[in-house]
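Posting for a labmate who doesn't have an account.
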Amino acid sequence: MVVTVLLAGLVVLGLAYLVALGWAARARGQFVPGPESIALGAATNFFDTLGIGSFAPTTAWLKLRKMVPDSYIPTILNAGHGLPTVVQALIFINLVKVDPRLLAACIAASVAGAIIGAPIVVRLPVRVVQGVVGLALLIAASLFILAGLHMMPGGGTALSLPANLFWIAVAGYFVMGALMTCGIGLYGPSLAMLSLMGLDPHAVFPVMMGACAFLMPVSGFNFLRSTRIDLKVVLGITVGGIPAILLAAYVVKSMPLDIIRWGVVVVVLYTAAVMLHAATRKTSAATAVEPATA
């Protein structure tokens, strides 16, 4: 019953967000995405479905290609990857079994964190955004390195958690939901936390994907009203991401990802250094605060 309600809620939320995104893009004259953003959405969401994550690679590409100002990146990440993640969640919540109470509680906690975090992010000064995103990339790179060295927790076989760990997980998801709105991906920290608690790593996928699928559109409604967003890039990531997810989920059964992960580490570390350098240099006209709506 809980799973059915969650799936129905995801469908309704996804459709509502699709309408809001289309309306906002049309109103701003940004309804036609470019091929580069479509390709970016396809690549990042394909590997996101396999557990690599999409925020760090997307941030790296947006920064390296100078596709948007740095302050736009958190809004684009959440608004652009929102609908593809809804598709991920619909697939994995159906395919992978996990305690429905844990699933629902973590989703609710992450959404609450995102609701609190989104209004703050759209008002942050540009240099603060650069610093936060730079630190987020360092965290992501660290998790990639640990995974590449097989030092990440292997996890157990449990599909549920005892009461004390259950509430720790819920609190963790509240914090991660707020951090998501700053551009800090949830997948890596979530896999590490729940695996350390003894949950089967496969069972983590519907929890973390369900949490992101609900919180990203919820925060996205607010981000769509911000002036710190390029809706052509958002639409490109969405349009490219959804078919790539279906391909990854149903066609690719196994593939060697180690080389890809190490390549991502190099790019992410370089981008983190660039972001942190931008955040710490002297303020100039180029880094002036851009206006944002509520």
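Reply:
Got it, the structure tokens are right above this. Residues 2-284 form one domain.
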